[in-house]
Amino acid sequence: MTQAPAGTSTVRLADLHPQLTGEEMLASLVPPPQFDDATFESYRADADYPSQQEAKELLTAFAVGAQPAKRGLFSRKPKVPDMKPGVYLDGGFGVGKTHLLASIYHAVPARRKYFGSFIEYTALVGALGYKNTVELLRGSALLCIDEFELDDPGDTMVMTRLLGELVATGTRLAATSNTPPNALGEGRFAAQDFLREIHAMASSFQTIRIDGVDFRQRSLDGHAPALAPDEYAAALAAVGGVTSDDAFDELIAHLAHVHPSRYIRLIDGIRAVGLRDVRRLTDQSEALRFVAFVDRVYDAQLPIRATGLPLHDVFSDEMLAGGYRKKYLRAISRLVASTNS
């Protein structure tokens, strides 16, 4: 990707045009850096929500079942409960689903295993073609899919077909999706939506429910602070190294010209994201691209500093009441965490 000019402390994201080959996409299918050390032992189940401990135990058993058998006359895998080849973690955002998904990945010692977001897998199909993607992934022991998207019928059916072919050859699957926390009734429909959309292979998945409250909100007041111009400059300067300095509208416009699968490269080498003059988003396409960008920034654990409208108000009331409500609520949760870090 384009690097920051030598001797400078800022780089504008709108000036960067990252490229990513299919081979690089495949190599990047590993857990985000913040989950490099994620294990089942480091997952702290909330005693107020027993389903968290239950999910942890079930997924531990699933990970053992996904391990290749040891070679040797008397070697065998530990006996584990019969489980389906796929598990789906159904729960609100911020209850540790991605931590558990990464724990599965790390617990399986297979050489060929992959971890990526739904959008990364569909981008891989787009870059390499369906047939080549199947051939590359065939024979892998485990495929972890974070943030399975249910709102794009075309991509969902491509993924269903892809996963069906891989399961038929022995690959195990683990997937997550997001539902709003503390929404009576609403969160309960996620598993039904997921199984309906992947109906061709719904019988391959065991649904594991995880209740709880968003851990990012436990110590925050739920607000993303907006800084005055002098505070903003000082906050970015304090980070040190290469930071970004973008007018919000310029970044939003630029995201339309970068495929979401490349957003991770867009922030490569960046230590903080600075956004000036944040405004409310009213265009659905712009808002969804911004959500995808926020996901990558959050995965990279980059702090965000901003002026203008507080970022927890960036999505309109109409958007929050619409079909993409779950995505926007997840993004707000991550924006609050990133602006307070």
From TrEMBL:
<dbReference type="Pfam" id="PF03969">
    <property type="entry name" value="AFG1_ATPase"/>
</dbReference>
<dbReference type="GO" id="GO:0005737">
    <property type="term" value="C:cytoplasm"/>
</dbReference>
<dbReference type="GO" id="GO:0016887">
    <property type="term" value="F:ATP hydrolysis activity"/>
</dbReference>
<dbReference type="InterPro" id="IPR005654">
    <property type="entry name" value="ATPase_AFG1-like"/>
</dbReference>
<protein>
    <submittedName>
        <fullName>ATPase</fullName>
    </submittedName>
</protein>
<dbReference type="GO" id="GO:0005524">
    <property type="term" value="F:ATP binding"/>
</dbReference>
<dbReference type="InterPro" id="IPR027417">
    <property type="entry name" value="P-loop_NTPase"/>
</dbReference>
